[in-house]
Specification:
- The structure is a homotrimer of 197-residue chains.
- By secondary structure, chain A is mainly β.
- The first copy, chain A, has one domain: 3 Solenoid (UDP N-Acetylglucosamine Acyltransferase, domain 1).
- Helices cover 0% and strands 32% of the residues of chain A.
- Chains A and C meet through loops of A and strand 13 of C.
């Protein structure tokens, strides 16, 4: 007996929606979609058939979550992020593309790890994994896998630092960092960030 | 006696729509628009008065097709591509812009050639022509004309290779290429790609 | 006794709207918003609670105007510009973000000065001011304050010239420029553009 909110101007064609989730005006959530608990899906968003969204996910306005995109627990999707699921898109209605779209072998997955943030208007090229708690800056274009806790900037996006689980930037000194805001501690171990608590 | 589909949540103000075309939820297609046969226009798209769209065109979600934009047969417009039609936009409501918007001399055209693909969130500066079967990568910003079959990347977009009519990358050896996927053959002739069949 | 137009497919929850303003299909303007006179808000736009928009502003389609964004008189917001108001966004539903979203200390303002233009798909990082009559090119990513009359290009955006109040490019000769289109005159004084009339 799930209790969730759907704005009267939204079009929601699934009932697999967790308690506490809110879906706002002019959204279209297709049938065959699963949305977790305590999520928020902003106005003018679209969620395609077959997508599964975990708990505590924030999806800001104007997003399209395509088949093949996996959003893990607590992900933040900024305004109008660009997901993709086809690396060589063509209009399937053209004879010259032949049988490419006869099955789903064209479909490339994207995985966005637990707690990661994707900034406004960032572009996520399909086939890549965004590590947990990574932060992709507004306007960045992600063309390869992103390490957990990495801060990514630019087109193409490059790693330019590290961020805390709470979102603030981390500064490592001899391989150790403590977040000045929330007090979480981290170790930098062979180029990877390890959360200590 | 055209047979096409309009989603009940769409607003379509023209009847000049070809057979087999589908227009999805929360779209707004204005009066004075012509849409060809067998097209698909995704949710939350807008097509402005005066636009003419050819057959077999795929328009993904959230697009705005402005007056001045020409989409030829079989074009693929990825999610929320940015078309433009004014190189020096101002709020026409300001006295300081004077008579600039009294007529349509400000309006710059964009032509997207047969079978070309525009990736998610790419930006197409008005006044340019995208050659047939070209592919603009997601997030690229096109600031000049694009050659047929060219693959364009980055901001500003640069040509970084060639693609087949089916969408896959071409590799030329002594001026000749055969697509490893569909078998089409091409010749590179003075910097231009020629389709051989 | 204000006279303004709201399209029947729009959702407008405020009555603080100036005379002559038009709000188009599938827009959502929240309660607590103030919109000035003679504005135009294109289809599929969203204006968040608490926003105040001045007179003569043009907002093209698909925009999200968040709390914290100030649009001064005569601003032009191109199609789907990316405003932001949180420099370190996280899903506030995650326990690990702690008390960050308990108050509004996370909220960063953006000010867009009188007569400025923001091109299609440009990204405006919060905490910055766009000077009056500046022009941000389509696809540019603004990461710092922008000088009045500056033309900004690229990711990150750099100043690449100056523009007239009417929108056209200015060419300075020994510190003086006259717009070839509208005849306005300017002086370049210590790196700043001064309007002479």
């Amino acid at each position: 007996m799930s209790e969730y909110y759907v704005h009267p101007k939204a079009l929601v064609e699934t009932e697999r929606i967790g308690a506490g989730t809110r879906i706002w005006a002019f959204c279209h959530v297709m049938s065959g979609v699963t949305v977790g608990r305590n999520c928020n899906i902003g106005d003018h968003s679209f969620v395609e058939e077959g997508v599964s969204i975990a708990d505590n996910v924030t999806i800001k306005n104007g997003n399209c979550i395509w088949k093949g995109v996996q959003l893990k627990e607590g992900v933040f999707v900024g305004p109008r992020v660009f997901f993709t699921n086809d690396l060589y898109p063509r209009s399937g209605r053209m004879a010259s593309v032949g049988p490419r779209y006869d099955d789903e072998s064209w479909l490339e997955a994207t995985v966005v790890g637990r707690g990661a943030s994707l900034g406004a208007g960032s572009v996520i090229i399909a086939g890549n994994t965004i590590g947990e708690y990574a932060m992709v800056a507004a306007g960045a274009v992600v063309t390869h896998d992103v390490a957990p806790y990495a801060l990514m900037l630019g087109n193409p996006a490059r790693a330019r630092g590290w961020v805390c689980r709470c979102g603030l930037k981390l500064f490592f000194d001899e391989g150790s960092a403590m977040c000045g805001t929330c007090g979480s501690r981290y170790r930098l171990d062979g180029g990877s960030v390890v959360y200590l608590g």
